[in-house]
Amino acid sequence: MLLGILYPSAILAQDREIVHQFPKDYYGQWEGALQIFKGEEVVRTLPMMLDIHPVSEGRDAWKIVYYVDRDSVVKDYELITDDSIPGHYLIDEKNTILLDGYVHGGVFIQQFEVSGSLLTVRVQRRGSFLEFEISAGPSMPIRKSGDTTFLEEKIPPVESFELNVRQFAVLNKK
User: Fold this and answer.
1) Topology of the domain comprising 18-173
2) Phi, psi of 155 (to 5 degrees)
3) Is 27:53 a contact under the CB 8 Å cutoff?
4) Following DSSP, what letter does each residue of 79-100 receive, concatenated?
5) Is 127 left (phi over 0), alpha (psi -120 to 50) or beta?
6) Using CA atoms, how far apart are residues 89 and 66, in angstroms rounded to an integer?
7) ∠ CA(124), CA(128), CA(130), 5° rounding?
8) What does the DSSP 8-state code read for residue 70?
9) Which of 8, 65, 92, 108 is the most exposed place for a label (fewest CB within 10 A)?
10) CA-to-CA distance for 109 and 96, rounded, in angstroms?
């Protein structure tokens, strides 16, 4: 409920939207242009594809293809349902890397750290299209605040992190 207190308009907007069932309502081959932002500037745009389809019970293909110049960068992953925790999934990169992800309100979200970068991935179905977004920045905080007493209230320590790149695509079902 903290989100509702902090961002009541986000909760109200979500109530008006259809919540799509993950992963079933996400199945299909989705294509579009991935825009890479640094600040307000689009520094690169490239075609991409996300293919999600059932493979076996509790396992779905999660294949991402980025079309870079004349080459393709293929990420042939698998989405695994973790029945022990509702809304919990794993992306298996098939190279010993497992990335945890969670569904909240029909939105698939992951957050992980790799090589000093903190990444947040968000995939959301909106009507007939998918939004695919990755935000990233250094995993070292740029600011530490709080951790004090203010007006007789104990304030917890808070760390803020820089976000220096955002990748965003609207993907249409092929």
Assistant:
1) Lipocalin (2.40.128)
2) -100, 125
3) yes
4) EEEETTSTTEEEEE-SSS-EEE
5) left
6) 23
7) 25
8) T
9) 8
10) 20
Q: What is the mean pLDDT of residues 2-30?
A: 69
Closest CA to 102 of 112, 93, 89, 92: 89
Burial letters 161-174, b for 16+ CB under 10 A, else e: beeebbbbbebeee
Please give the model's pTM, rounded to 2 decimal places: 0.86
Q: Hey, how many other C-beta atoms are within 10 angstroms of the C-beta on 123?
A: 24
Burial category of 96 from C-beta neighbours within 10 Å (exposed 0-12, middle 13-18, buried 19 and up): exposed
CB atoms within 10 A of CB 83: 8
Per residue in 108-129, pLDDT (tens digit) is 999 999 999 999 999 999 999 9
